[in-house]
Design brief:
Layout lengths: L8 E8 L2 E9 L3 H21 L5 H15 L12 E10 L4 E7 L3 E5 L2 E5 L6 E2 L11 E4 L5 E5 L7 E2 L4 E2 L2 H11 L4 H16 L10 E5 L1
Antiparallel strand pairs: 1-2, 2-3, 3-4, 3-7, 4-8, 5-6, 5-9, 9-12, 10-11
Helix pairs in contact: 1-2
Length: about 220
């Protein structure tokens, strides 16, 4: 759900060699500047997945970060733009009944037989980074039929609304998904849309919103 006509959030999927790559991304900015970054991100993902047979999730994020920093000519200078993107990357491997996850700030939620687990993202963006950690974490998770997985941007959690005009927060998103994760996916979409509309009320939408649910 974009804040403006075009969006700084994007979703992207590609299947290759019986592996499904699914991305939820949040680029710097929204509107037209964010949309340009979105186009850049999708183009680079196409290129990265196309040139390799079965890249791991963490490798894709590392390669994407390299593409972004090179294309924006980011070297860490004080006067340069800090543009980039936060991202969750889910890889479903149909041969091994496993998934991979790697994240730049944005986590992954999974429900397995009703039990909730969160896989935290690395606290560094796809773009120039000034901290010490340079390698993204690659999680490998065994899954089976019926498991439900969510990746998302921070747009819903950051939306102001409710009776006190405060942020929705990630804790409310966890509670919502806990309550609805076993329902049909099309029904979940409607519930999430209604939850957002009811929470926002008369407030303006503050950011682009992306929520992706995948059921094995």
């Amino acid at each position: 759900k974009p804040r403006d006509i075009v969006s700084g959030d994007f979703y992207w999927m590609m299947k290759k060699n019986n592996r499904l790559y699914v991305v939820a991304a949040d680029c710097t900015g929204h509107g037209v500047p964010g949309a340009f970054m979105s186009l850049l991100g999708m183009s680079f993902l196409d290129e990265i997945i196309d040139k390799e047979s079965a890249p791991r999730a963490d490798h894709v994020l590392s390669e994407l970060r390299l593409h972004v920093t090179e294309s924006l000519k980011q070297v860490g200078g004080d006067d340069e733009a800090k543009d980039g993107m936060d991202m969750s990357l889910l890889v479903v491997d149909f041969n091994s009944s496993r998934i991979e996850f790697s994240g730049a700030y944005n986590p992954l939620f999974i429900f397995q037989e009703g039990e909730f687990k969160e896989y935290k993202a690395d606290r560094m963006p796809i773009g120039i980074y000034y901290g010490e950690k340079k390698v993204f974490t690659n999680y490998e998770i065994n899954v089976k039929k019926g498991d439900t997985i969510y990746i998302f941007s921070d747009g819903l959690a950051d939306q102001f609304g409710g009776p006190d005009g405060v942020k929705y927060k990630i804790s409310n998103l966890k509670n919502l998904l806990s309550a609805i994760h076993s329902k049909p996916m099309t029904e979940q979409r409607v519930i999430i849309e209604n939850e957002f509309a009811n929470w926002k009320g008369s407030f303006e939408q503050v950011d682009d919103i992306t929520v992706i649910g995948v059921r094995i």
